[in-house]
Design brief:
Oligomer: single chain
Shape: elongated
Structural class: alpha/beta
Order of helices and strands: EHEHEHEHHEHEEHEHEHHHHHH
Number of strands: 9
Strand content: 5-15%
């Protein structure tokens, strides 16, 4: 059987790596990027076609994939005269790989269904390096028949593929996951900064904590910077973490509840961004806490 044609919108670090993987697997792609042409040009050099707008991407594609930074970015590409929905083929599937608000995904799913297609939210776990080798975690949700139809394609870019229920469930799980991870990262960052205040060696603190039930991958990633001065081990920018945790807070509010735990991590990362540290990695929140303790 021939492979479905794929349109891909958003060729940043993650999207660019995913497009390269899809091309490795023999898919025909139509692509649309933004300001940085690094991965667009690479994809074109390997045979991808560049579209002028999102409508053209949809007109050429059985599956339209988006990998963008915010819900607003996704909505902007989906709607309007030049948007995906305007050019959607009958029976096409739209997959949002970004981390978006669940409520936004549910509304877009209704609009796509009205246009004769299906919408899946499918946020990602792991890194662009995993994407290169097709080893992403994919947290998909939406119409099960649509998921089953595209699952073979998802398996070409992901190692662990989950179908989590009704549309919006994928983003809900991803936001809870990132809330937990970033809260843990901030707690570990403060722990290292507090060790400095108390004149305790960071490496020794880590050894004691890691010898017990607190040991985790996230602890090790923060330790990579706090002890080993390797910020790249946790390749997630503070501004992106603040966005995701902020979305978690909005999701809670939309559900009629108030998160108790979110305030610490979200407040700290928001302030770090306001002070020009948004492009630094999450593990470098250690420096933020250390600076706060010094006054």
């Amino acid at each position: 059987m021939s492979k479905p044609t794929i349109g891909f919108i958003g060729l940043g670090l993650m999207g660019g790596a995913m497009v390269g993987r899809l091309q490795d697997q023999g898919y025909e792609l139509t692509v649309l990027g933004n300001r940085d042409r690094t991965y667009i040009d690479k994809a074109i050099a390997r045979g991808a076609k560049e579209a002028a707008n999102a409508k053209e991407v949809a007109e050429a594609s059985d599956i339209v994939m988006l990998c963008m930074g915010t819900s607003e970015h996704v909505e902007g590409r989906m709607r309007g005269d030049d948007g995906v929905i305007a050019g959607l083929r009958d029976g096409a599937t739209v997959i949002d790989f970004g981390t978006s608000l669940p409520g936004s995904s549910r509304v877009l799913a209704e609009e796509v269904a009205a246009a004769g297609g299906a919408f899946l939210d499918a946020p990602l776990g792991r890194t662009p390096a995993h994407a290169v080798d097709g080893l992403l975690n994919i947290m998909a949700s939406g119409d099960k028949a649509a998921f089953d139809k595209v699952e073979p394609v998802l398996k070409d870019v992901g190692e662990n593929i989950f179908h989590l229920g009704a549309v919006g469930s994928g983003n809900t799980v991803k936001l809870i996951n990132n809330f937990f991870g970033m809260t843990l990262a901030n707690a570990m960052s403060e722990a290292f900064a507090m060790a400095d205040v108390a004149n305790v060696d960071r490496a020794q603190l880590y050894e004691v904590m890691a010898a017990g039930p607190l040991r985790s991958v996230m602890m090790d990633l923060v330790k990579a910077y706090g002890v080993d001065n390797n910020a790249a081990a946790l390749g997630f920018a503070i501004k992106n973490a603040a966005k995701d945790v902020g979305y978690y807070d909005r999701m809670a509010t939309d559900a009629g509840v108030e998160s108790i735990m979110v305030k610490g991590a979200l407040g700290a990362m928001t302030e770090a961004c306001e002070n020009g540290k948004g492009d630094e990695m999450v593990s470098q929140m250690i420096d933020y806490y250390a600076g706060k303790f010094k006054g």
